[in-house]
UniProtKB/TrEMBL annotation:
This is Antibiotic biosynthesis monooxygenase. Residues 13-85 form the ABM domain. The keyword Oxidoreductase applies. GO terms for molecular function: monooxygenase activity. Keywords: Monooxygenase, Oxidoreductase. Its EC number is 1.14.-.-. It comes from the Bacteria.
Length: 111
């Protein structure tokens, strides 16, 4: 499957930028990540996400949400809260979260 980026969206909307440092091949990490993706897609106002990780363990995920209420719904989701707790205990050496309002957005895709 060819990777696809989230195209430019109609502003305003919000980005939640999650950057992390973690080792490779962690127990249950991939399964939990897949479950979180399945859950967040059900949040009204969730618009999509883009992710990348380098071989050194630095990763970045940018999730796009229509409004702050959608971000709060995701933040307060009980399974997501459990996964975040496990991340702090087992998976991540460090992480940071940045939330920003997007006022302009555009994209390009070669045909």
């Amino acid at each position: 499957m060819t990777p696809k980026l989230v195209a430019g969206l109609e502003p305003p909307y919000y980005n939640v930028v999650f950057t992390s440092l973690r080792p490779e091949d962690l127990e249950d990490y991939a399964e939990t990540s897949d479950r979180m993706e399945e859950l967040v897609e059900k949040i009204p106002g969730y618009l999509g996400s883009d992710s990348a990780r380098n071989p050194g363990g630095i990763g970045i995920t940018v999730a796009y949400f229509r409004d702050l209420e959608a971000i709060d719904a995701w933040r307060l989701n009980s399974e997501h809260r459990d996964a975040k707790a496990r991340g702090r205990e087992e998976w991540y050496d460090s992480y940071s979260i940045h939330i920003a309002k997007v006022e302009r957005s555009y994209s390009f895709e070669r045909e």
